[in-house]
Amino acid sequence: MNVLEKAQLIQELHALIDGLEHRSLSFYQIAYSKARLHEIFNLCDEPIFKKQILKFKARTQPEQAAHDFADHTLYRQTFQGVFQDTNLLEEALSAYSDSGWGILYHPATGWQIWLMTASKGIAITSQWGDLDDIYSWLLEQQSIYHCLKTDVQLKQPLMNIGAVFQPTETETETETETETETETETETETETETETETDLNLSIQTTQEKSEHVHSSQIQQSVSLSDLSKKSQPIDLTTFQQQADSDTAIESHPIVHSLTPNSTEIPITAISEDSSNQNAVSQTFAKQISLNEYLADLNPIMNQDFSPVDLYVMNIVGLPDLSRHLDLLFYSSSLNLWQQQPIYLAEQLSKQGQFIKYLALFGADDSTQAAQLMPRFTAQNQQHILAIKTVSWDNLQANLTNIERLFYCYIQQSDFSWHMENYQAFIPNSLFQTQKFIQFEESPADIQTPLLLLKEKQKIRLIHGKNRLNLSLQESAYPYLLLDRQQGITWQSIQSVINQLNSPIHVTQLYDAIQKNITH
């Protein structure tokens, strides 16, 4: 790419960003502008130009820019995410008291790195600044405290586990030959037999101790056979979520984004169904699975609620950005039958009630099993499920790469399996205009307060919700109530209803009054 082409792309970037920030565009124009921005980002893979692109992303998508920056550092796997709330960042880092780092973002002051140091046991913070400056600070602190491990260093223990649980053919043959020789010696020498058995028992015990030591360092606690049998029993989802949230042994992970290590070919340990055999049995599970036109890597979830072959995180090859709005899970009991079963699609919320992303589960036998598996996964990140729906793979496949299309799939092409009481769906912030058309005093809002929106032909406008948006302007989606112009609603009728209500006006009060006005 020559200098002239770069200059033309930069000029086009300025025009696209100006249009998105300052002009009232149709849905088509917004979608086209965002798609063109994405194309330009993919074209610009030269390091110098990438820095220029990062500055543009920092203006339009600050959290995504920070995540992209962290993905290209040496410490991606210890990165806990991007936050705008210091309490959430502290909670994420507290789970990794000896290691871990995160980024705090504020629209007015920029970015700040928080770093956990094993020597102090507390988080130290950088000055506010741009991403390059604060990362330089991180490298300086790393040279002093040596508190972070690189991604390469973190992968090394996994390779050791593979070596322990995968015996070679040579070792098997040697053991067979040793047994044969021992049997021959037994016929003539009793003392030799005793010594050989003693040595063999010591060897087996030593091998088991090493295996158990490495295995326990990687998996906090094995799942007992009684625990496995409990999974088939139907339970209430609300109770299950409360139990999962109260389980302090569950490992915490980033609240904004979960960063999954790259898949490696490692044999997975399965729990033997024979109650007399309490030792783990080596079993290799498929590393990848075909999802029609997609190929997905399978990464086991290692925690005390799952045996290693129960539940897998799926990462679709070629779609690295998918995890920003959708997590994919695969339950291994139905490896070859998943296409015959519905896919369970859910909304994940943070502990505070903010939308995180969607969650799709493949391979569950029924809605009861889905209601058991999903909360166990979300509890790792101190999150919970708002609702569960069923959707076909054809509909999900056609819409999964875009959060706006996935939202419409979730709303229009799926059926409820379960939802919390007083359920309200979440709408992506890119689908509605945040400027109020009619000005009036709103009542105070909290995180659970929904927006009141009006759907017109080409736009979705905000009627009530300025106070709710001001709580956090960077949420990816908000709870909402929706009115439609096709119901006979006009802006004049909305204004008339507002004039009849006492200030400040609560969102549900206004929604009910407008609905009542429609029926008359």
UniProtKB/TrEMBL annotation:
Residues 170-198 have a biased composition (Acidic residues). Residues 167-200, 206-225 are annotated as: Disordered. Residues 216-225 have a biased composition (Low complexity). It comes from the Bacteria. This is Uncharacterized protein. It comes from Acinetobacter albensis. The lineage of its organism: Bacteria, Pseudomonadati, Pseudomonadota, Gammaproteobacteria, Moraxellales.
